[in-house]
Amino acid sequence: MNKIEHIGIAVKDLETSNLIFEKLFGVPHYKTETVESEGVKTSFFKTGTNKIELLEAMNPNSPIAKFIDKKGEGIHHIAFDVNDIELEIKRLKNEGFVVINETPKKGADNKLVAFLHPKSTNGVLIELCQERINKE
Ligand code: ZN
């Protein structure tokens, strides 16, 4: 696993939170993106070399809606950059971690992503991210 690619924060209202984090960081978000497969709207901020992703649910079945129902707004996941996501999934499964989606899917920001279930990682939802090579 490589560096932290980004930190994901679950929010109830993206527009409201964009303003809060804009004030906090002193920079505006640099893009918003919809991820249909997850039912979320996202926005991204950069601070130095860090990347922060805000996530708002687009429907009540979205994992973000369920998270906010249970825990309220806040840090939702930590994403790590990986070189070869398929290999990393295999390695982590062998180590006994529970992979939520064993087939990597398209995430925001031109990434292939997979998630590890927080029950196997001390309550922390971990996202694996691999940069996609061909942008279709
Ligand atoms: Zn993420």
Short summary:
By secondary structure, the chain is an alpha+beta fold.
Strand-and-helix sequence, N→C?
Answer: EHEEEHEHEEE
Low-confidence runs (pLDDT<50, min 5 residues)?
none
State which percent range the strand residues make up. 35-45%
- The count of β-strands is 8
Percentage of residues in helical conformation: 10-25%
| Spatial sequence of strands, sheet with the most strands | 2-3-4-1-5-8-7-6
N- to C-terminal distance: 26 Å
Write up this protein.
The protein is α+β, with helices and mostly antiparallel strands and 136 residues long. The chain has helices spanning 14-25, 63-71, 85-94, and strands at residues 4-11, 31-35, 40-47, 50-57, 74-81, 105-107, 111-116, 126-131. The protein starts with a strand and ends in a 5-residue tail after the last strand.
Topology:
Blueprint: E1 4-11, H1 14-25, E2 31-35, E3 40-47, E4 50-57, H2 63-71, E5 74-81, H3 85-94, E6 105-107, E7 111-116, E8 126-131
Parallel strand pairs: 1-4, 5-8
Antiparallel strand pairs: 1-5, 2-3, 3-4, 6-7, 7-8
The structure holds zinc ion.
Protein traits:
3 helices, 8 strands, single chain, binds zinc ion, globular, alpha+beta
